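hey so i finally got around to running the thing on that chain from the lab meeting. sorry it took forever, my laptop kept dying and i had to restart like 3 times. anyway pasting the input first so we r on the same page abt which one it is
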Amino acid sequence: MFDSLSRSMESFHELLPYLPGSTLIHASRQRAMERFLTRGLPGRRDEDWKNTPLGSPPIHPGLAFLAGEGSAWREPPMLAGAFGVAFSGTAAARVLAPEQPDWLELGTIASVLEQGSHSHDLLSLLLQRPSSLEDSLDDLNTAYLRDGALLRVRSGAPENVVVHLLTGLPPGRDAIYGRHLVVLEPGTSLTLVEHLVSVDGAETGAFVNGVTKLYLGHGANLEHLFVQEVPGDASLVNSAHVWQGTESSYTLRSLLVGGALARLEARVQSSGPGTITDLRGLAMGRGQQLHDHFTLVEHAHEGGKSFQSFKSVLEHQSRSVFNGKVLIEPGATGVDARQGSRSVLLSDMATAHSRPQLEIYADDVKCSHGATVGELDQDAMFYLRSRGLSTGQARALMLRAFVADVLPGGLLETVPRGEDMQSTTALFSGPVHRWLERISKQEDS
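ok and heres what got predicted. didnt touch it at all, straight out
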């Protein structure tokens, strides 16, 4: 039984006492729920959602989630040498940083809200919305904000800092809301890994609504890796809201595998000139899965550069969506912006939607966009078959080359089972390698 929107405010007030820090952000929660009730869930009439029907997922979290009771689970190993926070759902966080250096602050949002010990500025960063955002799911996330990671990298940090945020999704139809806050002070650098898996690999029908707020100071450098590998009929909508300071660099690498519906949004705003933004993602769909990458890069200052490349590999009746937009505001001269999407269909019933967009209000800019959708090259397939490869092996080899440039480092590592977490590149390569291994074993047709 799906939740009725007509009961949303009543259910919200019933659950409000279980939410941390309500005295601090009660008014923000209330306004967010009122906006959500006005708009409702996004649907086909919303231009940014017309190819991604969300349906009617469960939207009210259970009391176990709000009380901070996480399911016991056997956590996958964390990245070697990384700091980290592990979540079951978005509750029962465990901070993996026994000896935090002076240049690192790593904790949980729940502790901030419960203790009320941080400044008003920090809460403002936690609740700030991108200027262009009018989204009911973001409002729902604010209303039911329960926990997430708080991360601040201060001056004096080394260049090879890695933080791993691991979220295990429990079995059952739970609504899970999380919000991470990441602040990089001027001149600092960080590799941030967000990793979503199911608890002990179990099937899950969860509805996940996650938001990550990322603030990059002057000259800061952030590499953001987002990996989702979730079995079952889960619906997962995650968003990255990024504010880039002068001459900062933001790199996103995204991998979407599994789930009935998965959508990753990246909304990037420049807060100064000379920013560099590099967004790349890969969706691998099978069955009737739907994977969606949505991007909006706003160049508000001169001299910025942005590059977007999103790819999908689709089997059976799966679908992919790329909806990308670059906005160049008045006065943002000298901007170089490029975007594109490429999709390979392994079935006549698979579908790829692509909608790259440019909106330009400044002179002296270089911009381009494009999209391609097609099958694997049959001449190349014939050549590989003539050299003794099976159909599956030929497909896997060609797909390996197709996906390589959107992966961290541009290489697809062969990762032994049980060692998927030894490096950031291996974290990406593990799911992709298992996918291609399955493709290679398919019988000749």
